[in-house]
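Extended Data, panel c. Modelled sequence:
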Amino acid sequence: MQIRLATLNDIPAVLTLHQRYHLSSISTDDLAHGFVTTAFTTAQLQHLIEEENGLVIACDGDAVVGYTMAASWDYWSQWPIFLHMIAGLPYVNFHGQPLTVENSYQYGPVCIDRDYRGSGLLAQMFEYSRRQMAPRYPYLVTFINKKNLRSFAAHTRKIGLEVIAEFQFNDNEFYELAYSTAQPLNIDSNSNVN
């Protein structure tokens, strides 16, 4: 397994994986195992790769089997839910520190092929992404739909993200979570994280 930053050539495979687990198209059998809610275009992923260095992928041979996204709030401001989160940042703290668009970034969405879940891949991708973003931001912030129990358990139990708030948007309820980028994860030293 190889963990690396995505290139423009990876965009079609990322979009294929994303569409398979997107809430609008996910199979009923897969729904309880996690889903993603934000839709992306090729141009948006190109910007994420070229301007933000924020698309980390996991490859098994030539197949993209997972990804995690991370970017500045400026990038995410093109979607209404992230504008809602930006407006709420002045009202949340993490470990006594106020969160701002300058000292935090938005982590996620994350998607892992169902056949690779539970393998430690989430921790490996998270750690690679954290290392990419830590020089720029001391904190990451994200949200998880309260219906997405698997993602919530994985991010709080395996990664250690902490709930800092809860909010409603478009008739859905979400947890808002944060993490200090100064805190590395302890992952298997034999993993191939380039």
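DSSP finds seven helices and nine strands in the chain. This feature is highlighted in the accompanying rendering.
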